[in-house]
Design a protein that fits this description.
- The complex is a heterodimer of chains A (about 220) and B (about 160).
- Chain A is of the alpha/beta class.
- In chain A, about 35% of the residues lie in helices and about 10% in strands.
- A five-stranded mixed beta sheet of chain A has the order 1-4-5-3-2, covered by helices on one side.
- In chain A, a hairpin with a 5-residue loop joins strand 4 and strand 5.
- The longest helix of chain A has 27 residues.
- The radius of gyration of chain A is 24 Å and the shape is elongated.
- Chain B has about 160 residues and is mainly β.
- Chain B has one domain.
- Chain B contains two helices and 13 strands; from the N terminus they run E-E-E-E-E-E-E-H-E-E-E-E-H-E-E.
- In chain B, the strands form two sheets. In chain B, strands 7-3-2-1-8-9-10 form a seven-stranded antiparallel beta sheet, with no helix packed on it. In chain B, strands 6-5-4-11-12-13 form a six-stranded antiparallel beta sheet, with no helix packed on it.
- The chains are: A alpha/beta (about 220), B mainly beta (about 160).
- Chains A and B meet through helix 1 and helix 4 of A and strand 2 and strand 3 of B.
Amino acid sequence: MKIRQTSGNGLILLLFTMFSFVFLPFIADAKGSFGGSRGGGGRSFGGSRGGGGSFGGSRSKSYSRPSTPSYGKSSPSRSYSTPKSSFGGNRLNSKQDYTRSYGVPRQSTPMQLRNSQGANQNYVVHNYGGRGDGFMMGYMMGSIPFMWHTPFHPAYYYSRPSYVTNPDGTVEVYPPTFSYGTLFFTILIVGGIIFVIVLIIKRRRKGYDSNFESNSSFS
Amino acid sequence: MRSFSIESNGRIENTAVYYNGEQLGGIKEIFLNLEEDGTFDAVIRYEGSDKNMYTKQIFQDYFENIKIRPAAFDEEEAQNLQLLTIESDGEIENTVVFRNDQSLDGLISLLVHIKNGVAKDGGIKALFNRAPDTSEPVTFRAELTFRNDDDSTQVEGVFA
């Protein structure tokens, strides 16, 4: 009976941990996130496009996919996929891949950043008004705090920014998206670890060195 | 004369052992083999308060470092249990056996063997088991053999 209670307490703690991990990213930052509404009346990624949200930047021109495959050609823009490294992030074939899922960006801002080889690279940064915008800028600046790689920071649950390389060499950048898979596996692993630790602590506290916790004289 | 009692319902987790009225703890094995021909084996093996294992003759030896624990069963719980009491000085001629406080006569033999399985050390798997693993099965045997008036013998379980 006591063991069952121990397992029950562990299960409650596991559920609490899962609950915390689900809502921690949303509580940690008061700004709107992908799943919620933002204070300025803007859209979230899943919403339909409204009247506002396009101010302050120049809208990107429509992009037509190259008719011929780009592999085999020397494409200078290929190495500019990220400012600091070629690794990480999602490479999209076209911006339609992204806008099909998340809608038209609220704001598109052209900017010029220095890439890893020291050359200037033109970027078109698309903002959707969610938390991912902040993370996107962080990734683009190349300053990624260590906390972003830990489950205690909301950025951990977001993907890397998505990049689309245009034929003219400019790179379109789309904000990170929330990764439910990362959240699920983090809950699974962290919850499991906590569950085992709690079990060990409970057993030691009870002095579980005997076979029976009952009224028996035998142990 | 010493008094040694076993109160149980046939399950080792519901078995209390009393020695001169005090409930013992840390017991690993009890073996009682008393026969009318003079056989008198009464051995207890227990883990003492100093974590050492001891093997003692129940009615002759001093129980060194024996663990004494508070009485486990209240009066209501005890109603569902059988109580076997042996009062003896170590000689079969001076041995009286009681079952539920009633003295027995016509006994040919008494055999009690209760042994707790040896617990494994544990590991990760043991954390998720409600009951600990044992490498040996639990032994619980308690029989009384009576001689009837027609010289026939009858074996009765004590705690069943």
